[in-house]
Amino acid sequence: MSSKSKVLLVGSGGVGTIASYALEYAGKTTVTSVLRSDYDRVMEKGFSINSCDYGNGLVFKPTNVVNSVEASKVFGPFDFVVVATKCLPEVTNMIDVIAPAITIDTAIVLIQNGIGIETEALAKFPKNVILSGVSMIGSANMDGHIEHESPDMLRVGYFNNQNITQSHQEAVSRKFVGIYQNDKNECVYDEDVKFSRWRKLVYNACLNPVCALTGVDIGRLEIWGGVDSIIRKAMREVLAIAKSDGVILSEDVIEFMIRSDDPVYYRPSMLVDAEKQNLLEIEVILGNPVRIARKNEVNVPYLTIIYELLRIVQSRTMEEKGMIEIPKERPVPK
Ligand SMILES: NC(=O)C1=CN([C@@H]2O[C@H](COP(=O)(O)OP(=O)(O)OC[C@H]3O[C@@H](n4cnc5c(N)ncnc54)[C@H](OP(=O)(O)O)[C@@H]3O)[C@@H](O)[C@H]2O)C=CC1
Ligand SMILES: CC(C)(CO)C(=O)C(=O)O
């Protein structure tokens, strides 16, 4: 009998593939990975990886590779199910997708950006531990090739579940930290998930969407004036919403986030998605914060306009993908 932990990974993109590599590299886990578009390629050749942490020219196949959650069950039961897809709850409920692999002892680990990403998991699995993974990494998947450009730093803690003791939720969080951390990455226990998520949002709610909307990386955005004219102001609005939600972030975080990619012409994940014509994580990165601002009567004009522009871009992508249709005849006021 193996004493290794069993992890199911759903969402093997830039973040998820490096997560599965980190877990296997640390040697305390067997990873089963659910792949969709990369399944045939990875079964045949594995992922190819260039990684700033682990080296270039790597070929990697997780211990088990399957093409559906249902098919993963023969390799369970799982201690952890890691979700590292883009978080699009308005389009796909990932908690329904992973449900067949969840037992009462499974902890669900959401390594995704945004605010309010835990709602579905807590509602559907009120007796399970739900973990938050806040990832600082720069990594992208291009057809089974992973370009991992900035070091993997992961903070793991729990989204508080009133039905479970805090000491147990902390122990499960620390167990995941223990199987993830290795001599090449940085993984720490996060004692204040709410704070970490609002702090990270200072970057994601501002730089991600403005780069996605303009089609430029952060270096070009700064050279051409966008950081001064838009980003700093939008970041200040994130600080104001966080404050209204009980989280005090220091002003220094603004310069910290703006400088965090120096000296790289960095392309945030939402810009990568816009270029691939993928759907964008607009609701968890902007919609939820803007709704909290409305509820708490915080004035956020920059974030509101960024959100409304993104909603239109998202509808355009949905129409292109055949997910929505517009009326044949343009509706006009009577
Ligand atoms: N990339 C980055 O540098 C960073 C990203 N993040 C956050 O991490 C999360 C993951 O981002 P990222 O790695 O960039 O995402 P990617 O778009 O690179 O990868 C997402 C993966 O999820 C897969 N997927 C989607 N739905 C399913 C499903 N139902 N079953 C199985 N696989 C599925 C996709 O497969 P398919 O090809 O079949 O669609 C794809 O491989 C996001 O929340 C992002 O904001 C956080 C920090 C940095
Ligand atoms: C902050 C950053 C750039 C890296 O962790 C990110 O979250 C993203 O690209 O979406």
UniProtKB/TrEMBL annotation:
<protein>
    <recommendedName>
        <fullName>2-dehydropantoate 2-reductase</fullName>
        <ecNumber>1.1.1.169</ecNumber>
    </recommendedName>
</protein>
<dbReference type="InterPro" id="IPR013752">
    <property type="entry name" value="KPA_reductase"/>
</dbReference>
<keyword id="KW-0560">Oxidoreductase</keyword>
<feature type="domain" description="Ketopantoate reductase C-terminal">
    <location>
        <begin position="196"/>
        <end position="313"/>
    </location>
</feature>
<dbReference type="InterPro" id="IPR036291">
    <property type="entry name" value="NAD(P)-bd_dom_sf"/>
</dbReference>
<dbReference type="InterPro" id="IPR003710">
    <property type="entry name" value="ApbA"/>
</dbReference>
<keyword id="KW-0521">NADP</keyword>
<dbReference type="GO" id="GO:0005737">
    <property type="term" value="C:cytoplasm"/>
</dbReference>
<dbReference type="InterPro" id="IPR051402">
    <property type="entry name" value="KPR-Related"/>
</dbReference>
<dbReference type="InterPro" id="IPR008927">
    <property type="entry name" value="6-PGluconate_DH-like_C_sf"/>
</dbReference>
<dbReference type="GO" id="GO:0015940">
    <property type="term" value="P:pantothenate biosynthetic process"/>
</dbReference>
<dbReference type="Pfam" id="PF02558">
    <property type="entry name" value="ApbA"/>
</dbReference>
<dbReference type="InterPro" id="IPR013328">
    <property type="entry name" value="6PGD_dom2"/>
</dbReference>
<feature type="domain" description="Ketopantoate reductase N-terminal">
    <location>
        <begin position="7"/>
        <end position="160"/>
    </location>
</feature>
<comment type="function">
    <text>Catalyzes the NADPH-dependent reduction of ketopantoate into pantoic acid.</text>
</comment>
<dbReference type="InterPro" id="IPR013332">
    <property type="entry name" value="KPR_N"/>
</dbReference>
<dbReference type="GO" id="GO:0008677">
    <property type="term" value="F:2-dehydropantoate 2-reductase activity"/>
</dbReference>
<comment type="similarity">
    <text>Belongs to the ketopantoate reductase family.</text>
</comment>
<dbReference type="Pfam" id="PF08546">
    <property type="entry name" value="ApbA_C"/>
</dbReference>
